[in-house]
């Protein structure tokens, strides 16, 4: 395993109490594999990624338990300085909002080149040359001429390409992409996702794709981890999960999205609201919204039941769910 | 605001207007209930999950009904900076309303024989160069300072927010003219302007000074009010009200003003402190208030020649001034922290 | 088509670009909307799709008279509403209401829910006598699926989905004939989106509303709309019934757009070929001559740069009556019967989709 997150717990101390954002998340990514972490806002999918990257805001955030093994080392036990060396060089992150992640007063060539100057000790000229190469690689037309442009002179899709270039600059082993295409239009979204998938194949990187879009996941992912209220409720290879979900939440999500290729009648709607992280329901956190809930769901937290060799579901009644 | 809970049944009975009216009211109600009854009939049996929510009803019910204002107040009550500054300000307001509550003499009663004498029983702050009791004068000085500060701030806030708010709301030529005018006013150095303008005034009341402060102070608030109105105006709820056909006055009073007022309050509170300091500065320079008005600025000015022999006569009024200004600025800071939703 | 409620023709909105502080000089214009025509029938839902910046939101704002068009007419029941003001405008506004995108900024945080939903009655007091209003507000809350006891709460006590319900209740208060919904669910979580969409769907039939539904999500638009218009750079490039647009698109932009939508079905990804458009949408200040899509179109020829294609049934389909015979602004329109893929692509076997159809039933 390239990256293994084991029983991670993260909480946020706020004025109104403690928000338990991540409550025992376990997942792993292999080199060359794409893991999609699917969840709604507040499910803890981004917080987990921030903890892995080591960019969690502390305070108010706090990692209260678990380990993050990256190439065999527990990142949580590293000193901040060693951690910084891992960040950027061995794992990189792509954010949703490219405009605010790029420095508006430094031209993109210098921002890309800086990676080489800082981490590889290159001279300015070599770094600039590498920057142009990178921009070519992410297919920015006219890279040579545009290397001196500033971020605001690029369109949203191009900026996201620059972010990708920055992420792959030092050829990291793992890339975490947090909603990389959510802010983009459909046609541009397709371009960017294609590029990301291609680069991943080329460099044999591990990719964690954090998203709420079931369509994007189906297009690129190998495995899926579905998160709800800070826990992984189902993890499965992508084909199995779409064919037959083993958790009522996953089933609800799949049924509730309108389809492009058919005009449905009424959409299935999961009743109720995502839980408040300050007061996560007892037992299975999904039970107040679950059509299959029974007494045991209110009292017992479901462990990840093994559905098949590489598949798990945190539902007491996964068998019934699987059978539909 | 029609905020009072209005109980349909109770109100109808309360009017005692008679059966006809009750009947009409209940009929109107039953007519109105029709669509909801229809939907109510559909929701439970038919489509999944379109009925009223169970769980989120309880989630929302968990929170008490509270406005943003009371939220800010909850914040403030727990803030020690606010508590200290509010206590100081309450005390200042108290002594400026009833200075005789803690003094025994008239501030104008002086005895040259006691000039520059130090502290003694009954006269804890000693005497100044004219033989007046420093304690009494310091207490009475609070009145002018607070009067000038409060009146100038009120004038500035009202004039500034009305002009700035209207300019921001309507935009166009008026806005462009106002912006240039504020630029011109910003270019006037305050102390120099005061020296020039106030030196021709002979009145001994506080009003010319207040008038001068309003004249030079409104552009600051006007700018803030304008920016704030422009920001709030872009919110969809203003657009929604406009799409409903709301008049400009409704938009301004009901939707924009309550949401745009916070930065004005904050800046005005901080400005209040600086106006008190400005009054003292102008009085010190001899163009602000003039004796026999009692003011910290005048006392500081009068005591400065004797700083070597009688430093106490200078220190007490300056100390009072410094604490007062600080209290208002601290209050403004605390209010800003409480009102700024980004800091939550 | 049913009797038209709204007829939009030649709608144009240009925002002038000026330079200079004192002496403003116009140096150009952002052509946000550049000639849009459509009609909205009674009880019909028209979906308007397009990428960001295509002008769909500006169209919405002009329909509810929040913006004044630069040119063109919007006829509501035969009367042009673009030049109205004062009382006449207020009367029209009663009948055309809007649901906003962002439920967090569309409700005044300083007003209670009761005041927010009751405000339409204060502005139009003739609709409901004073004594009736509270009851009407509670009824509306019930209609949109909220507890009527919530009238004294403030918006910040509600979640995004609940706030959007409040916004819908406000739009319904005056019993309008037309609802313009601008991306009403794009700010909501996936599991809550379906609730709000179902609500809109139900209300539309219950109140016999005509609805203009604006969104960037093509699947969503298909789900809720009777007819669909595709916008590109300030114009409608193709418009027709939902099956005509989704199953027989004739405009290359529509085809590209449809093929780019990710389908939540991993089985499809091996079979599906996508049209990946090159480049970005041109700036609305500098719209290409002729066909505005030609800079990104793989079919573009010389004629496309010279002649503006009209939005009409393309010549080759004019004599047919099939689903391809719908308005499309392309010189080289061709019927590509796609489900989820590009031209000349083997459709994935039907069974792969069957599971989900059953699952959702």
Describe this structure in words.
- The complex is a heterotrimer of chains A (324), B (344) and C (361).
- With 324 residues, chain A is of the alpha/beta class.
- Chain A has 2 domains: 1-90 and 172-259 and 267-280 and 299-309, Rossmann fold; 100-169, no CATH class.
- Helices cover 36% and strands 24% of the residues of chain A.
- Chain A has an 8-stranded mixed sheet, sandwiched between helices. A 4-stranded antiparallel sheet of chain A has the order 2-1-4-5, with helices on one face.
- In chain A, strand 11 (305-308) and strand 12 form a beta hairpin.
- The longest helix of chain A has 18 residues, at 186-203.
- Chain B has 344 residues and is mainly α.
- Chain B folds into 2 domains: 1-39, no CATH class; 71-343, MetI-like (MetI-like fold, Orthogonal Bundle), CATH 1.10.3720.
- Helix content of chain B is 70%, strand content 0%.
- Chain B has helices spanning 8-15, 19-45, 55-62, 68-77, 80-97, 134-170, 172-186, 190-198, 207-233, 236-243, 248-285, 296-303, 311-339.
- The longest helix of chain B has 38 residues, at 248-285.
- With 361 residues, chain C is of the alpha/beta class.
- Chain C folds into 2 domains: 4-225, 3-Layer(aba) Sandwich (Rossmann fold); 249-360, no CATH class.
- In chain C, 30% of the residues lie in helices and 21% in strands.
- Chain C has helices at 56-63, 86-93, 113-123, 133-143, 160-172, 190-206, 218-224, 242-247, 252-260, 268-271, 302-306, 351-360, and strands at 4-19, 25-41, 45-49, 71-76, 79-80, 96-99, 178-182, 210-215, 227-232, 235-241, 327-328.
- In chain C, the strands form 2 sheets. Chain C has a 7-stranded mixed sheet, with helices on both faces. Chain C has a 4-stranded antiparallel sheet with strand order 2-1-4-5.
- In chain C, strand 1 (4-19) and strand 2 (25-41) form a beta hairpin.
- The chains are: A alpha/beta (324), B mainly alpha (344), C alpha/beta (361).
- The interface between B and C is large, with 52 and 61 residues.
- Chain B: It is found in: Cell membrane.
- Chain B: It comes from Streptomyces aurantiogriseus.
- Chain B: Keywords: Cell membrane, Membrane, Transmembrane, Transmembrane helix, Transport.
- Chain B: Residues 42-52 have a biased composition (Gly residues).
- Chain B: It is a multi-pass membrane protein.
């Amino acid at each position: 395993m390239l990256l293994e997150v084991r029983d991670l717990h993260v909480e946020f101390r706020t004025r109104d109490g403690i928000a338990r954002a991540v409550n025992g998340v376990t997942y792993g990514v292999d080199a060359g594999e794409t893991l999609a972490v699917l969840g709604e806002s507040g499910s803890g999918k981004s917080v987990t990624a921030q903890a892995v990257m080591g960019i969690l805001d502390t305070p108010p955030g706090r990692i209260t338990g678990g380990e993050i093994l990256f190439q065999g080392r527990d990142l949580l036990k590293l000193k901040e300085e060693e951690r910084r060396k891992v960040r950027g060089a061995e794992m990189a992150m792509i954010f949703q909002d490219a405009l605010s992640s790029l420095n508006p007063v430094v031209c993109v060539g210098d921002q890309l080149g800086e990676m080489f100057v800082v981490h590889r000790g290159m001279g300015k000229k070599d770094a600039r040359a590498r920057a142009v190469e990178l921009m070519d690689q992410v297919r920015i037309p006219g890279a040579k001429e545009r290397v001196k442009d500033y971020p605001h002179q690029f369109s949203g899709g191009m900026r996201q390409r620059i972010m990708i270039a920055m992420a792959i600059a030092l050829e990291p082993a793992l890339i975490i992409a947090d909603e990389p295409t959510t802010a983009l239009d459909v046609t541009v979204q397709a371009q960017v996702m294609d590029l990301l998938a291609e680069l991943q194949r080329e460099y044999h990187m591990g990719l964690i794709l954090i998203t709420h879009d079931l369509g994007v996941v189906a297009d690129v992912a190998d495995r899926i981890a579905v998160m709800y209220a800070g826990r992984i409720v189902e993890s499965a290879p992508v084909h199995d999960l779409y064919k037959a979900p083993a958790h009522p939440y996953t089933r609800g999500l799949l049924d509730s999205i309108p389809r492009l290729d058919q005009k449905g009648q009424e959409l299935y709607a999961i009743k109720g609201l995502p839980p408040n992280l300050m007061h996560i329901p007892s037992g299975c956190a999904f039970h107040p919204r679950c059509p299959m809930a029974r007494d045991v769901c209110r009292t017992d937290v479901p462990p990840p039941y093994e559905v098949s060799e590489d598949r798990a579901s945190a539902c007491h009644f996964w068998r019934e769910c699987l059978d539909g | 605001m029609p905020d009072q809970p209005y109980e349909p049944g109770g109100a109808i009975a309360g009017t005692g207007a008679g059966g006809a009216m009750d009947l009409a009211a209940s009929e109107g109600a039953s007519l109105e209930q029709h669509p909801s009854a229809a939907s109510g009939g559909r929701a439970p049996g038919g489509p999944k999950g379109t009925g009223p929510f169970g769980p989120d009803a309880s989630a929302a019910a968990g929170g008490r009904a509270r406005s943003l204002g009371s939220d800010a107040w909850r914040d403030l009550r727990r803030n020690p900076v606010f508590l200290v500054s509010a206590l100081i300000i309450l005390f200042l307001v108290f002594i400026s309303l009833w200075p005789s509550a803690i003094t025994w003499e008239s501030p104008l009663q002086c005895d040259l024989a006691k000039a520059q004498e130090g502290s003694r029983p009954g006269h804890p702050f000693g005497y100044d160069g004219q033989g007046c009791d420093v304690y009494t004068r310091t207490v009475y000085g609070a009145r002018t300072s607070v009067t000038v500060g409060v009146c100038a701030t009120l004038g500035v806030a009202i004039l500034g927010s009305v002009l700035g708010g209207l300019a921001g709301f309507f935009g166009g030529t008026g806005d462009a003219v106002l912006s240039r005018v504020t630029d011109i006013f910003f270019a006037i150095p305050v102390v120099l302007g005061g020296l020039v303008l106030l030196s021709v005034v002979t009145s001994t009341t506080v009003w010319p000074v207040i008038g001068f402060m309003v004249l030079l102070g409104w552009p600051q608030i006007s700018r803030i009010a304008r920016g704030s109105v422009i920001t709030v105006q872009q919110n969809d709820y203003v657009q929604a009200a406009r799409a409903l056909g709301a008049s400009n006055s409704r938009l301004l009073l009901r939707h924009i003003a309550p949401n745009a007022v916070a930065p004005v309050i904050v800046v005005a509170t901080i400005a209040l402190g600086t106006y008190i300091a400005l009054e003292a500065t102008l009085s010190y320079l001899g163009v602000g208030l003039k004796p026999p008005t009692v003011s910290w600025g005048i006392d500081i000015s009068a005591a400065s020649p004797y700083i070597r022999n009688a430093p106490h006569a200078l220190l007490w009024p300056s100390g009072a001034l410094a604490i007062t200004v600080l209290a208002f600025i601290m209050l403004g800071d605390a209010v800003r922290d409480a009102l700024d939703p980004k800091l939550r | 088509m049913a009797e038209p409620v709204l007829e939009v023709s030649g709608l144009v909105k240009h925002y002038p670009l000026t330079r200079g502080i004192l002496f403003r000089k116009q140096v150009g214009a952002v052509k946000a909307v550049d000639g849009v025509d459509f009609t909205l029938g009674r009880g019909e839902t028209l979906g308007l799709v397009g990428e960001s910046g295509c002008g769909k939101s500006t169209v919405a704002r002009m329909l509810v008279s929040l913006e004044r068009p630069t040119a063109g007419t919007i006829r509501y029941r035969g009367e042009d509403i673009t030049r109205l003001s004062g009382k006449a405008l207020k009367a029209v506004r009663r009948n055309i209401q809007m649901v906003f995108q962002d439920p967090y900024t569309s409700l005044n945080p300083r007003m209670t829910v009761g005041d927010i939903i009751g405000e339409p009655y204060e502005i139009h007091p003739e609709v409901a006598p004073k004594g009736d209003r509270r009851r009407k507000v509670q009824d509306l809350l019930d209609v949109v699926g909220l507890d009527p006891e919530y009238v004294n709460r403030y918006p910040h006590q509600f979640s995004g989905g609940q706030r959007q319900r409040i916004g819908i209740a406000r739009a319904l208060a005056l019993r309008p004939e037309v609802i313009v919904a601008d991306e009403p669910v794009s700010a909501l979580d996936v599991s809550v989106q379906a609730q709000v969409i179902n609500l809109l769907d139900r209300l539309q039939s219950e109140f016999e509303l005509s609805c203009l539904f604006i969104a960037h999500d093509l699947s969503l638009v298909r789900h809720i709309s009777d007819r669909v218009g595709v916008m590109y750079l300030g114009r409608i490039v193709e418009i027709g019934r939902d099956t005509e647009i989704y199953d027989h698109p004739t405009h290359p932009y529509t085809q590209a757009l449809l093929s780019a939508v990710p389908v939540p079905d991993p089985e499809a990804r091996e079979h599906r070929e996508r049209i990946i458009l090159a480049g970005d949408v041109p700036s609305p200040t500098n719209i290409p001559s002729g066909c505005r899509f030609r800079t990104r179109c793989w079919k573009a020829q010389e004629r496309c740069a010279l002649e503006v294609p009209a939005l009409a049934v393309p010549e080759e389909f004019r004599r047919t009556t099939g689903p391809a015979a719908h308005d499309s602004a392309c010189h080289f329109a061709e019927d590509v019967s796609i489900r989820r893929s590009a031209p000349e692509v083997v459709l994935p076997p039907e069974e792969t989709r069957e599971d989900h159809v059953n699952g959702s039933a």
